[in-house]
């Protein structure tokens, strides 16, 4: 099953696409780390993922709060485990440091692992 995943705690991909280029949907919208993992485990690796970095949780923020970077790291581990290539991706985060971290992780994975 082919699908596109939009990881963001507040934004809607159709509205966001008006100001930031995104592939055409439809989108599966994911708001947090737990749902990110659950959806990929249930549906498999999507054809495309658009990452946000800062993901607010419904609980009080802690130093252990999961971010888009944690989702990207989990995705790399999942792809290694199941010998899958990463999907196409974009990082739409407005957090410049977080955006660079996600991009560097995924670029490194693509250069050094299964394609």
- Distance from first to last alpha carbon: 20 Å
Largest sheet: 4 strands, parallel
Q: Topology as H/E string? A: EHEHEHEH
Percent of residues in β-strands: 5-15%
Q: From the alpha-carbon coordinates, what is the Rg to the nearest angstrom?
A: 13 Å
Going by helix content, strand content and strand pairing, the class is alpha/beta
Detail the poorly predicted runs: none
Number of continuous helical runs: 4
Q: Tell me, briefly, the overall form.
A: globular
**Strand runs, count:** 4
Mean pLDDT: 91
The main sheet orders its strands as 2-1-3-4
Helix content: 40-55%
Descriptors:
4 strands, 115 residues, alpha/beta, 40% helix, globular, 14% strand, four-stranded parallel β-sheet
Question: What layout of secondary structure does this protein have?
Answer:
Layout (H helix, E strand, L loop, with lengths): L3 E4 L5 H4 L10 E4 L2 H11 L4 E4 L16 H14 L6 E4 L4 H17 L3
Parallel strand pairs: 1-2, 1-3, 3-4
Helix pairs in contact: 3-4
Describe the structure.
The protein is an alpha/beta fold. Helices cover 40% and strands 14% of the residues. The protein contains four helices and four strands; from the N terminus they run E-H-E-H-E-H-E-H. A four-stranded parallel β-sheet has the order 2-1-3-4. Strand 1, helix 1 (13-16) and strand 2 (27-30) form a beta-alpha-beta unit. Helix 3 (68-81) runs parallel beside helix 4. It is globular. The two termini are 20 Å apart. The model has no long low-confidence stretch (mean pLDDT 91).
